[in-house]
Amino acid sequence: MTNETPPVALPAGLPGTEPYAGPASPSPRTTTLSGQQNPNDGTGVSKKTLRRVIGASFIGNFVEWFDYAVYGYLAVTIAHAFFPETDKQTALLLTFGLFAISFFVRPIGGFIWGHIGDRVGRKNALSLSILIMSAATFAIALIPDYNIIGIWAPILLLLVRVVQGFSAAGEYAGASAFLVEYAPANRRGLYAAVVPASTATGLLLGSLIALLLSVSLSPDQMNSWGWRLPFLLAAPMGLIGRYIRVKLEDTPAFLALEKEDEAIKAPVTDLFRKHWRPLLIAVGAVVLNAVGFYVVLSYMPTYLSEVVGLDSSESFLATTVALVTYIGFIFLTGLASDRFGRKRVLITASILFVVLTVPMFLLLSTGNFLIIILVQILLGAMLTLNDGTLPSFLAELFPTKIRYSGFAVSFNLTNALFGGTALFASTLLIKLSGSNLAPGWYLMAAAVVSLIAVSLAKETSKAPLMH
């Protein structure tokens, strides 16, 4: 960290702030997420505020990915409830198809939430998005199944998932920008790693609940009402997240921009006219994350039970073990990206996926439970090199005026094209090719795209945030 005046001065009057004391050596206290304050980090934010920022950024993504996890892990049961008159594989394809269609609204959400976040403020966008998202998730539990209302059941499920996709479009990008703009300059990677850690924690809880339900309820109980229980948890969790967020000030960077009256009227237009190159790099960089996240962490239980032939409880257990280690690896990756740079870590992730993905899927096909757990842990560790670095990398690519929009548009557009379709594409590729390795080849191709995109980017970790 160089001894230079921070690029963004904190507006006077922000609770818990102290005046900038001038150049000094970086304090080692900024090496943790405990809220320890470095008076020269350029933010001067109090320990209490930092803890609340971390909590507020964590919980929204946690609720979002808890829902996605439950939907993915209970896909076979949900398929039975909403598509009982089709064969098993077609019902599963239709269920994953609904999952994919809901993602197509995310680019629209990215435009709208990006505009709100860059014009009105990060806090306002995040506070509203979590309210909509948790309400939509809760509504899934209330939809009658096909045997009761017929074709209206999958139609209602689709409508609710579209609302979820729209609201979720503001979560990941907003929380990442929020943390990066609050973080000490030399620890932006570590702080931003809270966002993917929250998504993995949501997946972990979803996996644990799916495992608990699968071993404690009979198939009839699961099909009739058991699958609904996890979705009911969204309402209280969302209200807690909303409460935490409305109590926070907006980020120092946005408040400085607002004070100087430099917020632009049409941030998305400015993004496409003046910042199209970093936008293209961002889209390419997200491809591996979009495909890898859903294949490795969401689709895997279905793959292990339906394709490999593993018992459903064992497949959930293997994924749960992998997720626990994944969360730890995420923070190590955040630290590594601060030390070695975002570009180097992201390129390493892409190369590992190109070389190792297909061999690992071959090992999964052995059906050996211990080997499956080890492979999932290794795949998860490889994914964290991308997932733990991407939030800070994307936030640093764009200036404050369009940071929310740049992140939200690139992240959600790519996830709509490749993330939401990953479960459907993996299932379809296996059906068309007859090869259980098809998801591995698909994941390897995604890694090649990201490798090219990141190679064209500049290193962002050591530079000050663009104003």
UniProtKB/TrEMBL annotation:
Keyword Calcium: no
Alphabetically ordered keywords of this record: Cell membrane, Membrane, Symport, Transmembrane, Transmembrane helix, Transport
InterPro entries in UniProt: H+-coupled_symporters, MFS, MFS_dom, MFS_trans_sf, Sugar_transporter_CS
Name assigned to this protein: Putative proline/betaine transporter
MF GO annotations: symporter activity
Region (Disordered): 1-45
Any one of the GO CC terms: plasma membrane
Subcellular location field: Cell membrane
Annotated function: May be a proton symporter involved in the uptake of osmolytes such as proline and glycine betaine.
Chief location category: membrane
Composition bias type Polar residues, residue spans: 27-43
Entry's family note: Belongs to the major facilitator superfamily. Metabolite:H+ Symporter (MHS) family (TC 2.A.1.6) family.
Domain annotation Major facilitator superfamily (MFS) profile: ranges: 53-462
Listed transmembrane segments: 65-83, 89-113, 125-143, 149-169, 190-213, 225-244, 279-296, 316-336, 345-363, 369-386, 407-429, 441-457
Membrane topology: Multi-pass membrane protein
Top-level taxon in the UniProt lineage: Bacteria
Keyword Transport among UniProt keywords: yes
